[in-house]
# Entry
Amino acid sequence: MRPLSILVVDDEQLQRETLASILSEDGYHVTTASDVHAAAEALTEGNFEAVLTDFRMPGGSGLDVARKSSEVCPEAAILVMTAYADVQGVIDAMRLGVVDYLLKPLNVESLLRRLAIIRDRRALQLEVNFLRGEMNRQTDPGTLLGESAPMLEIGKIIEQVAQTRGTVLITGESGTGKEVVARSIHRMSPQATNKFVAINCGALPENLLESELFGHKKGAFTGALADKQGLFAVASEGTLFLDEIGEMPKNLQVKLLRALQEREITPVGDTKSIKVNLRVIAATNRDLAAEVAQGHFRQDLFYRLNVVEIKMPPLRERRDDIPMLARHFVEKYTKELGRPMRPLSSDAIRHLVSYPWPGNVRELENIIERAIILSKNQDRIDVDDFPVTLTASSQASTLPQKLDDALRVFARDHILQVLSSVSGDKKEAAKALGMSLSSLYRKLEELDISSKRLDDPR
# Structure
């Protein structure tokens, strides 16, 4: 564990050096300052977990140090040393975030115990933050993959919106990865260590959905045996993902609109509102504009949700991404199921690319998982490992006018495989492909294979 970093501020040299020596011997990283001005400079330049400051000093007081620490090191625990404790001084100090008052002459054992408590609390908080991040990572249902033009544009939007608290509406067919996008926004945001909470608005009846979102008071309705915290409160400082927002009953739409506008909620059966601070991301496979026109969805809520819209393309409109996605799911389920790694055959990839994918990425993932479970071929995953519905449909859809598209996808995928096998060395790749280096560069440009993709093949 990294040692706690402490700033010791005292105008008495002997006291300052003695404290620094004691704390250093106990494993702390100590910086000293002789007055308020020196302390302010140290606080501005350093990153301290604790500040131990004298109360009365020339040119200022411990309260000035506490005030500066609150500005530049808001997470630092502040302890004030004084021989002149008074009630008003304690009150003023506590208002500035001082966590403890130590009377002089100092009891060293007591000081070390208090610092140990601060150190242990910090270690616990770091562990909590780490575990929250791990929880968000491990429960992530997938990774946003794709280098087609639509997915590259979506990636740029995610990067931009992640740094704000703006409300996001994600639209697209079922299975296109709307929740993956929502989790990607959360993971890239400054709130990534806080909770990501998801709820399907079409999965619960109206009364239960209201209770889940806003909470309820004990006795608010039959079965409400205790107070319940709503998901708006649970996701505080994090992200609340409202999936299938188009399914939300109109009565609840009013309450959701108020929560978004006022940033406050009222639990069922309560009269007091609760302030909330979080990002809301909504998703739907419906045409909400059409729902508004038909009177099924509130226009004011639609405008409030639709601050930034991300439209997820169906998989059939980004066929260039299918080989990459398929290999990702092969790797994922090979590890999860404890099976030997086997590549997809070229014929299998051609069938995957030509299939219309009505279930989008979710359907592709399910078919790859099924193939890994049922495949009897020890060398590769082949067409025989796919369900008959996929192979029949993909064969029927391979029409003459689609041949150029199929050849382009196959050529792109083959070149990427060769480049990967030679660690991105274009000269070696050109030799293996039987073409000149200049021809390879032209082909890379023609097939829209970016240099970033070559540096990081997935």
The chain is about 50% helix and 15% strand. Residues 9 and 53 are 4 Å apart (CA to CA). The chain has three domains: 5-130, 149-313, 317-455.
